[in-house]
Amino acid sequence: MRYTVVLSVLILAGCEVSKPLPPNEAEALVNACLEETQAPGTYSVSPGSASSNPEGALPRARAVANLGGTQTGADAVNACIQRRALG
What we know:
The protein is built from three helices and two strands, in the order ααββα. It is mainly alpha-helical. The protein is elongated and about 40 Å long. The N and C termini lie far apart (about 40 Å). Residues about 1-15 have low confidence and may be disordered.
């Protein structure tokens, strides 16, 4: 048991944690991607969270179906966010 805990701590210590973008930068990025993709309808956006995976720290769009948002539109917006932020 002790070996497992120590090994887990050592593994986690080697991981770099990505922090979410500041709110104003995240908003600007999402707005630029909404404009670029021209995704129809409305999308909710969740801010990123601290994550060992850089993509997890990015904001994420989700379609609001009853307001015309589509999964295809959300996928396009999220791909844009990843491309602009990580690429």
